[in-house]
Structure formats: structure tokens, C-alpha cells
């Protein structure tokens, strides 16, 4: 009997070891395919250079939907389809401008700015006012209506450069952009100027969405470049009563019909259990949306292409989703989860790539400790490809609504240092993406999908 | 007695745990200093933008020496000095050019090329000949004088894109650049054209040094861009007898007096034992030598600045060395080791940063397995900063000559994906360096120096 157990243990060990070797060989093939025959870079070129910026509701967003469908149609998938979703349609309009009006120098000094997404415009009259500089929303309560009514509030709390993870620095500053306008409006402010969301010091303004609170007047809001924010702050110490003028012509139009783009390989054993990989197809209207999130879209499609090319027949259904409207509404992500719920589709795992096409570092997930531990066991297989991190964390925005259905969320983590150099700007272009870094990201996601499909997630508890 | 041992173990454990906490706190301070008050980026700006390219023997190299000395003079070090070294003085000369001479199309098609470093020039007459394309030096023996005499040999073996580490791909291709000219000349070839050393497909030629064998005629050699290499190869299949023309005006002048730039903080306990951090001050004459190796120089100096700023008084002498002439002679590295030997200086460890200012991955070292194991124990301290790799490998070129004196060599490993996009080209400029990635590299090196100084290397066996 003892001998029997011994033999059994031996058998289990050998099998485990074979599985590991087998996995290593498959992952090597996945990387070879991505690096030798990769299509993600050429797909990104087309999306960014031939279509370009594609804000929800724009003609370019419609073109991107058709492009995504056509690219997936070439992959020999089992199903490619569009999923209807109504999206907001915000437009930037005519030339935006802003000036520091110094009574000392006499002349207005032009600054680099852009309207925040979803903001109302000032119209041709613009808005002008004295400037109150603050470093956080909580300062407004102390200032109150007495000091804020009729003023322009300037939110100037910078990213904390000491945070190694730039996404933490973003998280520590972005409430100014998202909630600053309504917070200032409740004390009678007439406009808001926000320091751009980046650690970099340069002349590039960063847009991004704001959310108006329901019961407060809507006031126009713009982001100015970090160099201009520093300049404005310096000048305010010399001349506290200087004025700032800005003019924007943005407006929110009626909702527009758009689509999530979906393609899938049916699972051989569990066709009703889905492993999802995705990115978002919409982008801001500045630049080309290359890192945010053209990269995630072409990587998600590349995962399917790689599996097909290698003849891997997954046990579970593997689905690539290009979500619409992540940037200013999240309608695509919400609609997707709603339909999944209605159709009783079971999503085991959803993996999002929405942190740019940079060199791979790993993944984060909201999986249970036991599941995370199992995935951490895969790091020995992934470390040779630079994937050392398998950590607890959230998932991406688009897949978030699936969490309520018990889906394990995962987010691809490329290196975060350069992301906020480009995020929501006119320099987020194809040229800012390195081919190999993009391809390695696609291979990383394909490898994770392969391991999840083959070995499963394990117990949720 | 048992109780005594128990207490002792407890004491050791507690001490070790305090040490770890203490180390973690110091490393956090090092990173805060690098990211909040870093000087490396501004120093790099000056070196690249105000001085620029600085090939050994050039006036710019002399200016860079004086700049390095002056920057170190501001750091409050115990000693800053120059070390004389005679360096080669190769100059590129007037405009270089090359053309594919197609008898079909009638016209010459211009290609993007540059002379390889140390090459002789063609002079105004240029060199012209039919082209023999090969993919490796070994193919020349089979072709022999019969097929190579009077010809231009075109070395066109590309980087292997499937290698995740681009330095391995470089190692697999660079013999064509380094040894191709003499290998071809021994069979009577009149010139050499080499595919640029990069995975990227673009129009940028990459220079780099060649070595002429002693007993073979010297023939001129150039690198052409990867796009042009693909074009030339395609046209050769259509028109095998097409000719190629190129003209270069480079030449090797007499040796010039130059300097290694050295600064140090004296050790409090072991002033005669040195921990060295370094990069090389010279660069190729194209571009600005930002990643190669302005980054390594400013990082080495930043290590000393950070230690001084934090009031860390190292036990061993910490020395920053800006080596001269890594690119086309290694005279600085050789001279440094020679002087160290003559002065009986003991170098415990030498750490080089010469793989660009990219996001940190870790270090490699030729240390003994026991020493490596000790250093791998530090990875838990370093991983929060993205430093997961502590692996066996070589050291950098400049520190190599110290190996014979028993010095442990280490090389800083930033992420390798983008390095060969810029290496030895006119696009290796300041703009290609990300501030945070550069600063994180300096902090990585400072943290390693701190740990080495505090805990030592352990046994060499």
C-alpha cells in the first residue's frame, strides 16, 4: 500500500512536470508567433493612421467599428458580431483658447489648453475671472462662496513623483479633473482650470472626462499643460488679482447608436463558459488613441489570431471584445454585462488591456487568494518573458460591470512609467508605440489565456 | 545552554529583521530623492543638448570631460580627478552617400547609410561593384576569391526577432559589422555593406565599430538602414548583377590625449576598497549619445549625489567613473584597470550602466554562485521598484579589464526592447529618454551600491 502511494505520488509528480514542460513549449510558440508573424503593429497602424482619433459618436468611431469587424472577419473565428449600444456624443467644436491676463505685463499670455471631455463650452463670449488656486477639492469648503463666487478655480495639485506606480499618482490627482467643476460650481465659481494629469513637465494639455453633479449648475472646465500650470501659479504669487480668460466651443449632442465589436473561438468542452480579452475602441478626440487604447484592441484580436495560428483548440470559449465608449460614459462595458446577464452567459475571467502598449510587467486580478496563488504558480513560466508580477488588484473599467456576475477580473500590466506622458493628448500617436513592446503584450495576454483555459482558475474560496 | 542558543537565534533573527526594515526604509529614501530631487535628467539635457555627440578625440569629447569634472565638483565629493588616456581619433568627414545602380531602372536609388566607425574612407572616387549578398561570415569561405574579388559584400543577416532579449539578437548579428570587412577583404572584396544592427524596420542607419585584421588589406565599410537592406535584397533577386556605389570620407587621425573622469566618496572603514559605478562619456558622432551612454554617466554621478544628499557615509570608497573611448577602442577602460593594478587599488565590485536609460529590470553579474545567491536575497527589497532580475551574466565593456584583478562585475539591466531602435544613430537624442525611467535607473544603482556597501559580497566560493 505504501508502495502504491509512492508510485502514485511519482506519477503525479511526473505528470505535473510534463505539463509544465508542455506549457513552457506552448508559451514559447506563442511568443515566436507574436514576434515573428505579429499582426498587432500593422493593425494599430491602420487604426491610428488611417482612422485616427475616434471619440464615441464620431464618424471615426463608426469607421473603427467597421474596421474591427473586418479585421476579426479575417481571423477564421467561429463568430464575429456587433452589439448595439447608445453612446454620448460630445464634440469639441471650434478652436479653444486661453490667456493669462496680467495687468502688469499688459498683454495676454496664451496657454496650452483643451476642454475637459463632457464639459459645456463657454461659447464665443468666453469666460473671464480672477483665479483662485487650490490643491484639492476639500479646500473649497473653507474658501466658500465669499471667495469663490464669480471666480475661476485653478486645481493645481500635481502627481506625486515619488510614487513608482504612476497609476497611483493618477489616482491621487484625478478627482480634480473628474469632480472639480461641480465642486467649484456649488460655491458660484464660473469656470475651472485643471493642471494636466501627468508627471511630465511640458506644453501638452491632457483631456479626460469630468462628471457634472446633478443638482449643481454646469460650468465650463479646461486642462492646461503642466508648464502653463507652473507659470500660472508663479504669476499668481506675484499678482494675486490677475485674470484668466478661456473660450471653448464644446457641447454634448444627442446620443448616437454605436457598437461593441465581438469575435470568438468556441470552446470544445465548455462552449458556454467564456474567457474574455478586451480593450476599448473609442479614444479621445486629440491624437490617435494609440496607447489609449488602440494597443489594447489590437492585442485582444492578436490573442485570437495567435491561438488560431498555432492550432490551439481552447476548451472554453475565448472572446475578444472591443468596447465602445470607455472614455466618456462606459456605456459599452455596461451594455456588454447587461446582455451577458440577460443571455445567461457565464464569464469565467475577463482580461483587459488598457494601460498602453508598453513593455510587459504582469497582471493584476481581483481573484480569490487561492486563485491568485494558483496563478502565481505560473510566474515561473512567464518570468522568462519579463512577466514577474501577478498581484492582487482591480480590473479594467470596461470589464468592471461583469464583477457582479462573479467574473474574475484581470488587467494586463505593462510598465507604467511612460503612460501618462501620452494619456489623452495629441501626442498619443502610432509613433509613440514600440512594435516589440506591443507584440510582447499580445503574447503575454495569449499566454495567460492559454494557461487559464488549460488549467482553470481553481476554487473561488 | 539551550536557552542561550535560543536567545542568540532570537537575537540574530530580530537583528536581521531590523536590518531588512532599515534597508527598506533607506531604499525608499533613495527612490524619493531620485524621483523628487533628481539631477540626472537635467545633467543629461546639458550633455546631449549643449555638448552633443562626443566621439573620442573630438572637441565635444574634450568638452564632455570638462563638464563631467565640473558636475562632480558640485557634489561635495572627497576627490574628483581626471585620468589621462590616449585615444584614437576617427573622423567621419564630408557627406557620405550611396546608391543602388540598377541597369533596369536606369537611375541610381539613394540609400540611407553611414560609414562604420574606424573604417577607412573611399575618398571622392567612391567604390563601385557588383553586390554579393551573404548572411554570415562563414559563407565567404565557400564563395572564395572567384566570386568575391572586386565585389561589394552585403551582409544581410537580420536580428532574430523571436529573442526576447534584444542583446542576444545583437550578439547574434554583430560579427558582420565587427569582422565583415576583413573577412571579405581576404578574398579580394573592395567594399562592405552591412544591414544595420536593429530589429526595427526604418530608414535610420546604425554605425558602430569594425576591427580590421592585421594582415589583410583594409577596405571601406558602411551600414545601410534596414528598409534599404530589404530593398537591396529584393532588387538583387530581380537583377543579380546590379551594382552598388558608395562614397565615404572618414579617416583615422593620430591619437589624442583624453581623460577618464573620476569622483569618489571615501569609505569610512575600508577606504582602500572600492565599489565602482560607471558609464562611458564618449559616444558615436551621430545623434547625441543620450541612451548610449549619456544615461549611464548621469546615473553614475547621481548615485554619488543621492548618497551625499541622504547623509549616507559608506564603509567602502564609492567611486563614479566616466570612461572615455568605449565605442571605438576601450582605451579608457583598459587604462583604468592598468592604473588600479599599478596603484594596488582593490575593486570589490564594478557596476556599469551601458544599456540605455530605460525602465529598470535588474542586474546581471559574474559573481560566484554564493555571492549571487546573497544578492538574490535582496530582490524582495528591490522588487517593489520593478527590479526582479538578479542573474548570472557578464559586466559592461569598460569594467571588463578589472575582472583579471578579481573584481566582481555587474551590469545594470534596464528593459531591452527599445535600445536598438536608437543605438549608434542620429535618433539617440535627449527626447528619446524618459525622465522617470532614467531616474529609476539611478535609484536602482544607488540602492545596489548601498546594499553592497552595507552587507558586502560574501565569500567568492
UniProtKB/TrEMBL annotation, chains A, B:
- InterPro entries with a match to the protein in the record: CPQ, PA_domain, Peptidase_M28
Protein name per UniProt: Carboxypeptidase Q
Localization: Endoplasmic reticulum; Golgi apparatus; Lysosome; Secreted
Protein origin, superkingdom: Bacteria
Q: Name one GO molecular function term.
A: carboxypeptidase activity
Annotated Gene3D superfamilies: 3.50.30.30, Zn peptidases
- The secretion signal range is 1-21
Organism placement in taxonomy = Bacteria, Pseudomonadati, Bacteroidota, Cytophagia, Cytophagales
Alphabetized PANTHER family for the sequence: CARBOXYPEPTIDASE Q (PTHR12053:SF3), PROTEASE FAMILY M28 PLASMA GLUTAMATE CARBOXYPEPTIDASE-RELATED (PTHR12053)
Q: Which GO terms describe its biological process?
A: proteolysis
One Pfam family here:
PA
Q: Which organism is it from?
A: Catalinimonas alkaloidigena
Give the coiled coil ranges.
Answer: none
Q: Which GO terms describe its cellular component?
A: extracellular region; lysosome
Task: Give residue ranges for domain PA.
Answer: 140-232
Subunit composition and interactions: Homodimer. The monomeric form is inactive while the homodimer is active.
Give UniProt keywords alphabetically: Carboxypeptidase, Endoplasmic reticulum, Glycoprotein, Golgi apparatus, Hydrolase, Lysosome, Metal-binding, Metalloprotease, Protease, Secreted, Signal, Zinc, Zymogen
- UniProt domain Peptidase M28: residue ranges: 260-446
